[in-house]
Amino acid sequence: MRREVIRILARVGDLEDGSKVTKRTGEKIYIVRRSITIYDGKDSQKIECKGGAVFLVDSNGNANVYDYGTTVLWSASVSDVFRYIDPEEDK
């Protein structure tokens, strides 16, 4: 079964963790995260974005902080888009 993927403009703060996005005019893929964990071999430290921001993490593990209102191009399945439009649909 083929999974249909569409791309729409969305505010990054409205998207779930793990969503795949690109910047509006770019092609590099980022993953939306509200927290990241850094490991140093023995211990780990969790860093959370607060104050209306999220991390965009690239395939190399680099993370940048963006405001919730930042518009990105979201790659999503049709069912993901319907859940985005009507979050009550899954309930």
Biggest sheet character: 6 strands, antiparallel
DSSP E strands, number: 8
**Structural class of the helices, strands and pairings?**
mainly beta
CATH fold descriptor: SH3 type barrels
Give the tally of structural domains: 1
Name the CATH architecture.
Roll
Spatial shape: globular
Given as residue ranges, the uncertain stretches (5+ residues, pLDDT < 50) are: none
Separation of termini?
25 Å
Q: Give the class-level CATH name.
A: Mainly Beta
Major beta sheet, strand line-up:
1-8-2-3-6-7
User: In percent, how helical is the residue content?
Assistant: under 10%
Reading the helices and strands in chain order gives EEEEEEEEH
Radius of gyration over alpha carbons? 14 Å
Describe the structure.
The strands form two sheets. A six-stranded antiparallel beta sheet has the order 1-8-2-3-6-7. It has a two-stranded antiparallel ribbon with strand order 4-5. It has one helix and eight strands; from the N terminus they run ββββββββα. The chain has one domain: SH3 type barrels. It is globular and about 40 Å long. The mean pLDDT is 89. It has 91 residues and is mainly beta. Helix content is 9%, strand content 46%. It has one helix at residues 78-85; strands spanning 5-11, 20-23, 30-33, 35-39, 44-48, 53-57, 63-67, 71-77.
